[in-house]
Amino acid sequence: MSARLSHETKDEECGVNRDWLPMGGGKGHPSHCPDAQEYIVDFDGPDDILNPQNWPTWTKLYIAVAICSGTFVASFNSAIFAAGSNQASREFGVSSEVTTLGTSLFVLGFASGPLVWAPGSELIGRRWPMILGIFGSSIFTNGCAAAKDIQTLIICRFFAGLFGASPLCVVPAVLADIYNSKYRGMAISIYALTVFGGPFLAPFIGAFITTSYLGWRWTLYLPAISGFFNAAILLLFLKESFPPFVLIEKTREWSLMSTL
Prior knowledge:
By secondary structure, the chain is mainly α.
């Protein structure tokens, strides 16, 4: 204990920054340790091209279109199954109240998903929660479409909603990352249009599919296929927009350059 105090006293006498992590083993810091605050990686001024808000307009536009499309698919998926629930109840030999759980549990998944995806987008960035959420929702929706019994259908619907909640809470964060206050309101209004536009169009399209030769299962295959397509687009073209993770990538590039 006395050795530790003596090293701390020595650090203070040498002007060593106490924000540095301890050396360990009771050893003090070298006297030449710089001020840690001077080496924090940040954007190079307000016009730094690495700042997501300074990305080219076309880059921000295709990102906004891609992620809002994912939101539309998720919200569309929440309501389209209702049009085919009566056919599903007859096929599985259950009451219509039971098949209504397919919609109810999807919405319950919507309510539960933000507990995972919202903090996840702060911990691992925006990109992977978006991709994993839409891809996972599509997988479970495909499972619903191929279900052999009502239990599989309603359980998969819950997890489809759980994963489908990802764009609902991550997309506004991405739009806030890439648009400044001048254009952010317009971007969020388009996002809101996709949130409410999906459930608005779903009953019309679902009823058309159900009354055609395709049947109720295609009310689920359609959003599943759309989700897989959207997930592929995001995987190929979506850039990480959360500023701390952009700076982490900048730091990683500097580290690689310093080893050359």
